[in-house]
Design goal:
This protein has 14 helices and 19 strands. By secondary structure, it is of the alpha/beta class. The chain has 2 domains: about 180 residues, 3-Layer(aba) Sandwich (Rossmann fold), CATH 3.40.50.1950; about 210 residues, Rossmann fold, CATH 3.40.50. The strands form 5 sheets. Strands 12-11-8-13-16-17-18-19 form an 8-stranded mixed β-sheet, sandwiched between helices. It has a 5-stranded parallel β-sheet with strand order 2-1-3-4-5, with helices on both faces. A two-stranded antiparallel sheet has the order 6-7. β16, α13 and β17 form a beta-alpha-beta unit.
Length: about 400
C-alpha cells in the first residue's frame, strides 16, 4: 500500500447499497498516503452523505457538473487533469452502460472521458443484472478500451439473491490500486528537507542573510516525491513556487526553521539539511529602525544560532541525516569534519567559490561523503543531481538495514 503515497485518486461513487463501503475505501486510501477527491452521482447521495466522504477524505466532495464553486476553483477539466487514477466503486449497471456509450451527462462520466488517468471499475449490482447480455456486452467493450474491472465478487446480496455482483471489499480494491504502481525507492518514507537562506533581523527593516536561492533544496523535494516519499519542505525566503505534492512551511529565521523541523520530527525517516542557515544572529533586535546618525561605524553583538542538522542528528532515534557543506576552500577536509562532528550519515560538499555552480546557479557539482564511501557527482543541473543524490540515499539506507 506504500505505493499509493502521493498518488492523486478520484474515487467515483454511483448509486447502490455498496456505496457504504466507499467510506472505508476512502479511509484506506488516505492511510496509504494518497490524496483523494470523491465524486458522487446524485443517486449515490441517497445511500451515503457527501459530508461523510468529505470528513474522511479531507476534501470537498464533488456532486454537480456545473457547480459554480467548483468551476471557480477546480473545475471538471482541472479535476480530470489532476488525477493519477480514477476508481469507480461501486460501479452500477447504469454507470457502466453510460460510460460504454460515451455519455457525459454528469460529472463522473465527464471526468472519465476527459482524463488520461487509468480507470478502474468495481461493479456492484444484482446478480441477474451482472449476468445480463447487455451488461456483459458493455463490460467487454470497456475492456477493449483498457478499462480495468475489479470484481465483482460472488456471495449473498442485499436483495437476498446469491451470485456474482457483490462489490469487492475495500481492502482488496485498495491493494489492487497499489499494484498498478511499481514500488519506488522511497515508497512509504517521510522526508524533511530544509532549503534556502535564513534571515536574522537587525531591526524591523534590516536583516543578515546570504545568497542561497533554495534551488538545490527544492530540486531535492521534487526528486524525493518522484521516488515515492512524503515530503515536508521547510524553506527560508525564496522566490520559487512550491513543488507539487509537497508540504511547504515558510520561515524567516534559524530559530523558526528549527522549531518547524522539530514539530513532527518523530515522523521523519530522512532529514536533508540543504538550507544555508545563518551561523549567527544579532543578540538584540531593535524594536525600531536604527537611524544612521553621525557615526561612520556601527557595532552588532552576535549570538550563535542553533545548529539544526546537529540537533536532529544527535537525537536518540534520529532519522537518516544528510548535510550539505558549502565551502570555498579545503572542501573535502571540512566536509568530512562536519560529517564526524555532527554525527551525520552523509554529507554533500560543494565548492561555492566556483561561480558556475555556486549560489543562484542552475547547476552544481557534489562530492558525497559517508563514513566508508566517497562519490563524486560531476557538474550537472540541480534537478539531475537531486535525483542522483536521492538514489544514493536510498542505497545507503538499504545497506544500513541489510545485515
Amino acid at each position: 500500500m506504500q505505493r499509493l503515497t502521493n498518488k492523486r485518486i478520484i474515487l467515483g461513487i454511483t448509486g447502490g447499497i455498496a456505496a457504504y463501503k466507499s467510506a472505508e475505501l476512502t479511509r484506506l486510501y488516505k492511510t496509504a498516503g494518497a490524496d483523494v477527491r470523491v465524486v458522487m452521482t446524485p443517486a449515490a447521495t441517497e445511500f451515503i452523505t457527501p459530508l461523510t466522504l468529505q470528513a474522511l477524505s479531507g476534501n470537498p466532495v464533488h456532486t454537480a457538473l456545473l457547480d459554480p464553486e467548483a468551476e471557480a476553483g477546480m473545475g471538471h477539466i482541472e479535476l480530470a487533469r489532476w488525477a493519477d487514477l480514477i476508481v469507480i466503486a461501486p460501479a452500477s449497471a447504469d454507470f457502466i452502460a453510460r460510460l460504454k456509450s460515451g455519455m457525459a451527462n454528469d460529472l463522473l462520466t465527464t471526468l472519465c472521458l476527459a482524463s488520461d488517468a487509468p480507470l478502474a471499475l468495481a461493479p456492484a449490482m444484482n446478480q441477474a443484472m451482472w449476468r445480463s447480455t447487455q451488461t456483459q456486452s458493455n463490460v467487454f467493450d470497456l475492456l477493449q478500451q483498457q478499462v480495468v474491472f475489479w470484481g465483482p465478487d460472488s456471495g449473498e446480496q442485499a436483495c437476498g439473491d446469491v451470485g456474482p455482483g457483490r462489490m469487492l471489499e475495500p481492502g482488496a480494491i485498495a491493494q489492487l490500486s497499489a499494484e498498478l504502481y511499481t514500488t519506488k525507492l522511497l515508497s512509504g518514507k517521510t522526508v524533511f528537507i530544509t532549503a534556502g537562506p535564513t534571515r536574522e533581523a537587525i531591526d524591523p527593516v534590516r536583516y543578515i542573510s546570504n545568497h542561497s536561492s533554495g534551488k538545490m533544496g527544492y530540486a531535492l523535494a521534487v526528486a524525493a516525491v518522484e521516488a515515492g516519499a512524503k515530503v515536508k519542505l521547510i524553506s527560508g525566503p525564496v522566490i520559487l513556487p512550491c513543488p507539487e505534492r509537497v508540504e511547504r512551511v515558510m520561515i524567516e529565521s534559524a530559530e523558526q526553521m528549527l522549531a518547524s523541523v522539530l514539530e513532527d520530527i518523530d515522523a521523519c525517516d530522512i532529514f536533508i539539511g540543504c538550507a544555508a542557515v545563518a551561523d549567527f544572529r544579532p543578540a538584540h533586535q531593535a524594536e525600531q529602525k536604527i537611524k544612521k546618525g553621525s557615526s561612520d561605524t556601527i557595532s552588532l553583538l552576535m549570538s550563535k544560532n542553533p545548529d539544526i542538522i546537529a540537533t536532529v542528528a544527535q537525537r536518540t532515534h534520529k532519522p537518516f541525516t544528510v548535510g550539505f557543506a558549502a565551502e570555498t576552500e579545503n572542501m573535502q577536509e571540512y566536509a568530512r569534519g562536519k560529517l564526524e562532528q555532527k554525527n551525520l550519515d552523509l554529507i554533500a560538499a560543494n565548492d561555492v567559490s566556483n561561480t558556475e555552480i555556486g549560489f543562484n546557479s542552475d547547476e552544481n557539482a557534489l562530492t558525497l561523503i559517508s563514513d566508508k564511501q566517497q562519490l563524486v557527482l560531476e557538474q550537472a543541473s540541480k534537478a539531475v543531481l537531486a535525483q542522483q543524490l536521492i538514489r544514493h540515499i536510498a542505497l545507503l539506507m538499504t545497506q544500513r538495514i541489510d545485515p
